[in-house]
Structure formats: C-alpha cells, structure tokens
Amino acid sequence: MSHNVLPLFYVFHFYLFGIIAIVSAVAFVTRKSPVAAALWLVNTMFSLAAMYVLLDAHFIGVIQVLVYAGAIMVVFLFVIMLLNLGHASDISDARGMGWKLAAGLVGLALLAQIFALTRARVTESLTLPENTIADQVAATGAIAPVAGPLFHEYLLAFEVTSVLLLAAVVGAVVLGKRGERANAR
Amino acid sequence: MLAESLFFSAVLFTIGVVGVLTRRNAIIIFMCVELMLNAVNLTFVAFAQVYGAAGQVFVFFVMTVAAAEAAVGLAIIIALFRHRQTVDLSNINLLKG
Questions:
Q1: B69 contacts in chain A (CB < 8 Å)
Q2: Taken in order A41, A54, B48, B46, is the CA torsion positive or negative?
Q3: CA B85 to CA B78: how far, in whole Å?
Q4: What is the pLDDT of residue A159?
Q5: Residues of A34-70 as b/e, b for ≥16 C-beta within 10 angstroms?
Q6: pLDDT tens, A30-62?
Q7: How many percent of chain A have pLDDT more than 90?
Q8: Would an 8 Å CB–CB cutoff place A59 in contact with chain B?
Q9: What's the average model confidence in pLDDT over A59-74?
Q10: Does B51 contact A56 at a Cβ distance shorter than 8 Å?
Q11: Rg (CA), chain A
C-alpha cells in the first residue's frame, strides 16, 4: 500500500499495531504461565505481520504468520505441553533484584544506543526514491521483489540454507534419541 | 515510517533482552530470543522500504535460521529435562565455576 493515498489511515494502523505488539510483548515477559506467555508472543508476531504488510512487505507478512506464529510457536507450545510445564510454578518466577537491576541497565543502554543510531544520517545516494517498493509490488506482485534477489544475488546463501535446515533436523533427531538409547541400555 | 519502525523495533528488542536477563524458565528465555529476532526483522523490513528489497531477503534467511534454532534448541531443552527433570536455569549451573 502506498502511504501517499491514505496517510492518516496508514499512520493510525501502523501505530495501533506497534502499540499492540509492545503491550503483548510486555505481557509475554511478565506472564508466569509459559502457555499464556507463548500466546501473548503469538499476538506480538501477528501485529508484527500487520506492520510488515503496512511496510510494503506483503510476502514477509504472510511468511511471518505461517512460519513464526504458525510453525515455530506451535513447536514451542508442543514442547511446553510435552514436558507438562503449562502450570505457573515457582520456576517461572523472575530472578533476584540484582538481575532485574542488570536487565534494566542493559535495556536502558541498548535503547540509548539504538536511539543514537536512529539519528545517524545515511548518504542520499543509497536511498531509493519514495515508494519504489510499493510501485514494484503494484507492478509485479508481492513475491517478485523478494524472489528476484533471492534467486540471483543470494542464490548461494539460499542453497546453504537448505544444508543448515538438514543439519538442524539431524541434530534435533540425534538430541531427541539420545535419552531413549540410554534408557534401553 | 522508518523512524517509527526503528522505535518499535528498539522497544521490542529491549523487552526481549530484559526477558532473557530476568526470567529463569529456559523455554521463556528461548521465546525471548525469538522476540529479539522478530524485532531485528522489523528493522530489516523498515530499511528494505528505503534501501531496496534485499532487506526482505535477509528477513527470509533470519526466519530460516530461527526455525533451525528452534528445532535444535527445543531438542536440547527436552534432553535437559530428561536428564535433570527441570527447565529452571538457576538449577543448571554445571559450567558456572
């Protein structure tokens, strides 16, 4: 969507989903029950998908819902329920005061750093003209702007990714089976 | 929308860091790492709008690595739970010295 058409509509929804994402993330970090935390995280990921769509990345938004909110979080919930950790217990409690203080300090330092970076200027020659991606999406569809670079400049990385996934699958199976073998002995 | 996206991304990343540092449940810490990856993805997508669609390709790769990481990490957590009957990281301090 080009944000020259409906600026107020666009800006309002961008802020709305951003605030939903942050509120859900805060709720996610503060929940005691792992299942409730996982569901709040799914909410954050859905809002992020909406923000991707508003930022002209329609395909990434769909993939976010399918892969993150769909597949990865279901695996998390599956493990939580497999290990019977769904109830809120003292395990879920936060660490002591020292850790909270350290977390607050690290958080503040990171925020300050990122805000300082936000003010940095990038040379104009690198910047695309306004609405380039939006026009590309309108002209060739949502997938072509991603698929083009993926299968040309980044083809090698794409192929290496398949090896990475294979290694991950083999690793997960090996880690999962080790216990069984020890029990059988 | 670049500045707003960077703001939301920074806040989400910071929430993730605070979660990793303050929680003791291994699964929740792992989910906080996923939240941090998502925050970085938002930065990539926001910059892709200004500097070209290669940023979206990187989001694609980040998601693939996140999926691989989730599979291996959760397998480690299951193996850990079989061994120690807990996912409380304050009880798992073999390498603490």
A1: 168
A2: negative
A3: 9
A4: 93
A5: bbbbbbbbbbbbbbbbbbbbbbbbbbbbebbbebbbe
A6: 888 889 999 999 999 999 999 999 988 889 999
A7: 35
A8: yes
A9: 91
A10: no
A11: 21
Domain containing residue B56: 2-91
Average pLDDT across chain B, whole number: 87
- Give the burial string for B29-46 (b: 16+ CB within 10 Å, else e): bbbbbbbbbbbbbbbbbb
Chain A closest CA to B84's CA: distance in Å? Answer: 12
State the total domains in chain B: 1
- Please give the backbone phi and psi of residue A31, each rounded to the nearest 5 degrees, phi first: -70, 145
CB atoms within 10 A of CB A123: 6
| Residue B80 scores a pLDDT above 70 | yes
The half-sphere exposure of A90 on its side-chain side, counting CA atoms within 13 A, is 3
Question: Which of A72, A107, A122 lies at the smallest CB-CB distance from B14?
Answer: A107
Contact B63, A67 (CB under 8 A): yes
Q: Exposed/middle/buried for A12, CB within 10 Å: 0-12, 13-18, 19+?
A: exposed
Q: What is the pTM of this model?
A: 0.86
pLDDT by residue (tens digit) across B30-45?
999 999 999 999 999 9
Q: Strand, helix or coil at B17?
A: helix
Rounded to two decimals, the ipTM of the complex is: 0.91
We report the CATH number of the domain holding residue B68 as: 1.10.287.3510
In a domain, B17, yes or no: yes
